[in-house]
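Homework help board

Subject: predicted structure for assignment chain

Our instructor gave us this sequence and asked us to write out the predicted structure in C-alpha cell form, then describe one feature. I got the C-alpha cells but I'm not sure how to describe them. Can anyone check?
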Amino acid sequence: MVKISPSAALVIIDVQKGFDEPFWGKRNNPNAEKVMEDVLRRFRANGRKIIHVRHDSLNPSSILKAGKPGFEFKNEVRPLEHETIITKHVNSAFIGTKLESILREIGEPEVYVMGLTTDHCVSVTARMSGNLGFRTFVIRDACAAHTRFLDGKKIDADTVHNVNLASIEGDFAQIPWSEELEF
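My C-alpha cell output:
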C-alpha cells in the first residue's frame, strides 16, 4: 500500500477529448479514464490538491489546439471551479508553466501523476518532477499509450506503456496501481 500524505497533489495530464480520435491508433488500457475518475474522486474526497494540465498545440491545425473540441477535458476528469488548470505547449507540464511554483507552495508534496499518454507527457512530467526533487508516483493503471512504429516495425500499445513505466520506475518515480493508494 502507498499511504498518501496530506500534502499530496494529483496532477492529471492531458485527459482531453482529442485523444479519442482514431488516427492515434490502437490504445492500451481502455479503462484508464474510469480509473482516473475513481482516483480523482478519492483525492477530492480526502481534500488533496488537484491540478489539471491540458495541452494546447502550437500547430493551428492540431485537434489539441485551444478552441477546438479536442482541446476540451474528458468528462471523467472535468475540473471543478476551484481546481487549478494549467495549459502547456510542450510535453512537460513544468516547462513554460507555474506547476513547479504551485507545488513548492504546498511545501514538499508527493506528486501523483496520471493521464495521457504514458510515453509522452506523463513520462516527461514524471521525470522532471523526480529531477526537481519531488517524491513522484505515476499511477500505472490511470495512464495509457498508443501503438507506435519504429523502422516500420509495430510496437504494441501495452509494450509502449510498460517499457515507459519501467524506464522511470525507481530513478524518477514509484509506479503503484490505483488500488494500492490509501488515504
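Reply (TA_rk): Your C-alpha cells look well-formed. For the description, you could write something like this. DSSP finds four helices and nine strands in the chain. That's the kind of observation they're looking for.
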